[in-house]
Amino acid sequence: MLSGGSDGVIVLYDLENFSRKPCYTCKAICSVGRSHPDVHRFSVETVQWYPHDTGMFTSSSFDKTLKIWDTNTLQPAEVFHFEGTVYSHHMSPVATKHCLIAVGTKSPKVQLCDLKSGSCSHILQGHRQEVLAVSWSPRHEYILATASADGRVKLWDVRRASGCLTTLDQHNGEKSKASSEAANTAHNGRVNGLCYTNDGLHLLTIGTDDRMRLWNSSTGENTLVNYGKVCNESRKGLKFAISCGCNPEFAFVPYGSTIAVYTIFSGELITMLRGHYNTVDCCVFQPNFQELYSGSKDCNILAWIPALREPIPDDISEKSLSQQHLNPAYEDAWSSSEDEG
Amino acid sequence: MERRRRRRPLADTFSAKRPRGEAPPGEPPLHGSPQAVEAALRDVAALFPRGLFGDALPPLVLRHQLYSLVRDRTTVDRHLNRLRDEGRIRLLHLGFEADALGVVFMEPYTAKVLQAVAGKPQAGLVRRFLETAVAACPELSYEQSRMRALGFADADVTQLVAAGVLTVRDAGSWWLAVPGAGRFIKAFVRGRRALLAVIRRSRYKEVALAELGQRRSLAGARLGVAYHVHDLVGAQLVHRIPSASGTLLRLAET
Q1: Where are the alpha helices (DSSP H) in chain A?
Q2: Residues 263-302 of chain A whose Cβ lies under 8 A from any Cβ of chain B
Q3: Quick one: pLDDT band at residue A48, thresholds 50, 70, 90?
């Protein structure tokens, strides 16, 4: 797993658990530390593996650069410079005909950088304020979604010269619902995070108006699923994750110092995952292990593993209580004898 | 002003309690059905104090109050939209918050509006407006072009605004409104603030629900404690927590 920190450091972890214990620590294999000559000068905002193999990875940071790294030598193979701080970048996971990296920066123009030629080949114009999140569709290799601080989410086909395909409208075209300034916006505030579902048919967006919305990605229609208040105070992008391979699919959204788990299509809040001591900034789902990894301001990355638990029977007797299998992290080591101490 | 966030005590961080199969007692059922939504709507409408404003207002329910009775918000929204399209209820923009929509049943609404303008010169115009525009278009607001198409000139619209049936939204568009709703909104905002202040002043930012009904300092809650509690829980400003000694209302953290 690749992780970038707010001090500019990038660390690679090995997630395999060979220790056969339910609680384990993943080892860091290698890192681009503060002493590396090409380390990022400010906070690393987004890191992504090269979609086809782990020989390469990309990282973008507040120091206005996007760096392409060779994993084996840990040297940057290419550096792209921008005029504003880079909030987010994404490379298409399904692209075979292009190697474009979409970059969202402080400027309202979305830049597309080509890996093959090493230059910024395209600019997508349409937003009015900084672009906080970008995401390629996992279904179509030319469709890109971008989210901006002006409250708009735009879907683009990068082959078209003329402009965006659709701007998502939270009221689905009913102009009567909003005040006139908020017409044609996806959220009533900055749009912080974007995530496509794995089949690419739906798009989840989250904004600073404390709302999360689910959109049909082909028509751009708001499905009006109501998740309630999803507190969001982040001034930069919020990275949340959608599960892959579960039925029903879940969204894992950082909510203060906890992670809220919602069912995507019904809007139900399943649970809050508590474990971090400070604000959770990002979470990512590993579909092969079905595990969630979350990073937080308390300098920890936690791994959340689904626990296989049987429901408690209604009549709890003394005998069955003692047979409960409790995770050793929750067991206390107090002695039960009253004679000691 | 820097917002202070209350940090949860450390013991809360690792909660080793296993979730039970069904919802904890005291919480509303999870999956709402249309009947549950309609029953919830009637329950909250019954809590509305009719005599308080001299019986001039129809029972107003806020949409988020229903979320405290039926936990599945998406079902509530979808069923309300269906009732609105059938013409049995009306959604109104109340004006104190961007998202807070009021829900009224259609018959009490038309009855009260006509009662409010009875005897005034605008009565005939208001009746014509209710029969054509309000019955035909189930939307929250009206544009100038739509009003002209329905046969209401600018002078008519001015009279409707004076009667209180329309409120100005923007240059050339108006929200549908209830005449006399200003007093309701003032009492509502005052009551909400009073209740939140009571909870905020308590030591652990939580109050037992049973005790809340008996406090004398809640003279500000003129619409009734139960009505305001549904509003606070539905708007996610407080959490309703079942405990061994009854239900507690705890202030939400952010």
Answers
A1: 318-322
A2: 266-268, 271, 274-275, 277
A3: very high
Cβ-based interface (< 8 Å): residues of B facing A = 5, 8, 10, 12-16, 18-21, 30, 67, 71-74, 76-78, 98, 139-143, 169-170, 173, 235-236, 253-254
DSSP bridge pairs for A272 = A260
Instruction: Give the mutation candidate from A172, A177, A261, A271 for the B interface (greatest B CB count, under 10 A).
Output: A177
Q: Do the beta carbons of residue A123 and residue A81 sit within 8 Å?
A: no
The beta-carbon neighbor of B170 closest among A179, A225, A228 is A179
Taking residues B85-104, report their average pLDDT: 84
- Between A and B, how many CB-CB pairs are < 8 A? 67
CA distance B156 to chain A (A): 20
Q: pLDDT tens, B176-204? A: 888 888 888 888 888 888 888 888 888 88
Q: Which residue of B has its CA nearest to A328?
A: B16
Question: What is each CA distance from B47 to A34, B40, B42, B50, B227, in whole angstroms?
Answer: 63, 11, 9, 9, 6
Chain A interface disruption, residue of B27, B73, B145, most A CBs within 10 A:
B73
| C-alpha angle A274-A278-A280 in degrees, rounded to nearest 5 | 70
Report the Cα–Cα distance between both ends of chain A, in Å, rounded: 46
DSSP element (H, E) containing B105: strand B101-105
Widest distance between CA atoms in chain A: 81
The number of angstroms, rounded, from the C-alpha of B136 to the middle of its chain's C-alpha atoms is 24
Question: Mind telling me how many Å the CA of A89 is from chain B's nearest CA?
Answer: 30
Mutate to test the interface with A, among B79, B141, B144, B168 (most CBs of A within 10 A): B141
Q: With beta carbons less than 8 A apart as the criterion, state whether A322 and A283 touch.
A: no
CA angle B238, B241, B247 (to 5 degrees): 105
Residue of B nearest to A312 (CA): B20
Flag whether the pTM goes above 0.90. Answer: no
In the chain, the amino acid numbered A211 is R
**Whether residue B13 has pLDDT greater than 50:** no
Chain B residue with CA closest to A275: the answer is: B13
* pLDDT for B4 beyond 80: no
Q: What is the pLDDT of residue A18?
A: 78
pLDDT-based confidence at residue A202 (cuts at 50, 70, 90): very high
- The tokens 């474009």 sit on which residue? A100
Q: Is B73 within 8 Å of A231 when comparing Cβ atoms?
A: no
Q: Complex ipTM, two decimals? A: 0.77
Task: Find the distance separating the first CA and the last CA of chain B, reported in whole Å.
Answer: 14
CA B224, B225, B230 angle in degrees (round to 5)?
Answer: 105
pLDDT for A323-338, tens place per residue?
445 555 556 666 666 5
Q: Output Rg (C-alpha) for chain B, integer angstroms.
A: 21
The answer on pLDDT for A255 being more than 70 is yes
Contact A155, A116 (CB under 8 A): no
Do B86 and B252 meet the contact criterion of CB atoms below 8 Å apart?
A: no
Q: Which helix (H) or strand (E) holds B74?
A: helix B73-86
Whole-number pLDDT of residue B222: 81
Helix B225-234 / helix B181-201 crossing angle, nearest 10 deg: 80
Q: What is the pLDDT of residues A98-116, one digit of tens each?
A: 899 999 999 999 999 998 8
